[in-house]
Amino acid sequence: MGFLDSIKGIFSKSPKIHYAKSQSIDVMDLNPKRVGPNQHILPYYTVASVELGNTTTKAIISATEMGSGKTYVVSKEVRMTRDVRPPKKGEQVFGRTIWDVELTKEAVSEMVRDVLKGAMDKAHLNVNDLHFVVRSTGVTAGFATPEEVGVMIVSLAEGCRMAGIPNGKMTPIMTKKQLPEILQDYTLIEKLIFDGAVTGVVPPTGKEVVANEMEGELVTAGLKIGSKWTGVDYRNPCISIDFGTTLAGRITNNGEPYAKVVGNLCGLAGAVSDAVVRGTELVSKRGGAVLDIHAEKGSPNKELAKKYAEEIHEHVIIKEVPKGMERFGTVPVNPESAEKAGTFLIGCDVGENGSDIPELEKIGAKILKESNLPTLMYTLDIVSSKITQRLIKIAHEEGIINGDTAIGITGRAGITGEKPKLIIELLSELGIWDNVSENIIFVEDGLALGASVMARCMNCLGTPKVPIGGKRNGPCILSQRIKRQKEMGMIK
Q: What is the model's pLDDT at position 8?
């Protein structure tokens, strides 16, 4: 290393990380009164997101201030899905989580009821304070048929009803008078209709490409609204990556007024890291996860961590989902439908449908035996970062992303620890972006934020001055949407 190189090394900085941590708000702020002759209440639109995932089941209540378009988190209730009660006599098991936890309609409904009521109790809110409730699930990997998915959807809705949520708060409005008076000026329902596009993206046509398509849609929307807390314009074209237990996400082009989905992601994500830690004695063999591990002081052996990560990636398969596959990374897929819809389907697996998970467990045991917990955790940071790099490398080689594409990452296995820094470093190696840092965001609670956006889209609650649809660095697409709907005869 020369003298100039050594000087550069001294002054080199870590990459700038645009991390959108969920912004909290006190429940009293939902009805703030400004001192003055005319008391004024800010127009907050309050939405509950209920998600039953493979590892956690959450209810997150968010509130969007319609004047600024910014979304805040009011409260959260999070429970481990493995704690869903076992089937009672006479109940029928309709599906399982990726970790083989049995699910019945009754047990799922009760879990949903409890987390939703828990979130409301924490915020001291009642059903009347919620304007909308959005339900979603990541537990589709263990399902075998569309009928089983249907039972899950019914179970989620029933759980919400058991918590006191009426059907009217789970379906779109027909007229603006169905909204509270303070919100009526913000709905555009008299100018256009909800045509299925969420944040300026139309869903793929034809049969469902992946079982967790809705997750990809919600996450993309959540990343777009979360980006408002950063300096990055995360609109179309973009790639969204959700590192939950299973992988979800989509890639959009830059079409206007609506972008199309040109890529979908599926398979295993956080489950890769979970499998590694389940090889240790730190977590339970039944549904144990990285979330169960408590931080330990000490320094990681980074060189050793790189070696372990390479060993783990020998078992990680990332590629286009081949034709004829019904599952990839345990998630139900339809490559033929993807081809017809013009969508490139990228999957992440460990062996074949998780067959090499036992091998990852062995590596986890070896890591802890030969080193320490900080090295294990740093290894997992590298593993997730390398998965991101491999996913994006394939998408770029296929020509569906380029230097104009914004990158958004959410989910526990993609935004924690050293992952953001490592991801930026590994993506920089690809040479796609001149400055990766200015094109990538990391967002907490992406799916829950997406639920708030989904509710707004379904009820035509827009913020034209703070657009989330359209192209990066471009204007609001409201006028284009109205023109398109008139041309199609959808509105007069």
A: 43
